[in-house]
Structure formats: structure tokens, C-alpha cells
């Protein structure tokens, strides 16, 4: 079976995207940045991208200021549950976006890794979370443009 130019480009870059790309967002507590990124990707990408989020040391609940900031833009994440980062989640993902988890995220060949340097919303109020939320949205929009062909 012949490889497509996209598949060959993936081999050259060291990663192969699935027909339906999958993205894993990782931060320490999976209670703020990674939850916002996952929610934006689900909202903006629809069913065209598989979305996961996890944390290296997950909190018990999502940060209430993050829930409030997302509600302001019409995205309800009050029922989101922080999850622990597993090797299986990394292996099942084409793209792994880390946000302050450092060296905790396992590295596997064939995965695309990005590190988004963003302020941590932990312990901050909604006013401080808004600019973080807006920066995450802009990065998610760019990521979608990279992963999906235009409609």
C-alpha cells in the first residue's frame, strides 16, 4: 500500500496523525489550564478531534474561578472531573500539550509534544483567569488550524 504525502511528512516529522487526531492536555492539577483547553477544543473542534485532559497530581475538583470564567464564554465545565495522567492516555494521543507539568509527562516516540507556557490560575479569582482563558482559546484555535483541513 502506497503512503500518502501526509503520511510521509508525518514520518519525517516523527509523528503520524490519526484520521481523527487526538489531543491530550496536561497540567499539574488538571483543574485549570488543561480543563479550559480541553473544553475549548471540544467546543470548537466538535467531533473532528478526540480530546483528553489529565494532571500529574490531579486536584479533587476543577478550580471554581475557571468554571466561572468558562461559563462567561458559554462553556459549562462544572461537571468536569480532574483525571490522573497515565501512559495509556499519552500513547492514545497524537498531540500532547503540557502546561507546567515539567518532566512528569512520559515521552514516547511518534508523538507531537508542545509546551504552552501559561500562568497558573490556581488560587486566583475570575479577573485573573480571564486573560489565561483567552490565551488558551487563541492557542486552541491555532492548534485546530494545524490539525484539521479547512471545512
Commentary on this structure:
The longest helix has 22 residues, at 126-147. This protein has one domain: 3-Layer(aba) Sandwich (Rossmann fold), CATH 3.40.50.2300. It is an alpha/beta fold and 151 residues long. The chain has a four-stranded parallel sheet, covered by helices on one side. It is globular. The chain contains five helices and four strands.
Number of domains: 1
Cα shape: globular
Low-confidence stretches: 1-14
Order of strands, widest sheet: 2-1-3-4
Describe what is shown at a glance.
This protein has 151 residues and is of the alpha/beta class. The protein has helices spanning 5-13, 33-45, 64-72, 87-91, 126-147, and strands at 22-27, 50-55, 95-98, 112-115. A four-stranded parallel sheet has the order 2-1-3-4, with helices on one face.
Features:
151 residues; disordered N terminus; 4-stranded parallel sheet; alpha/beta
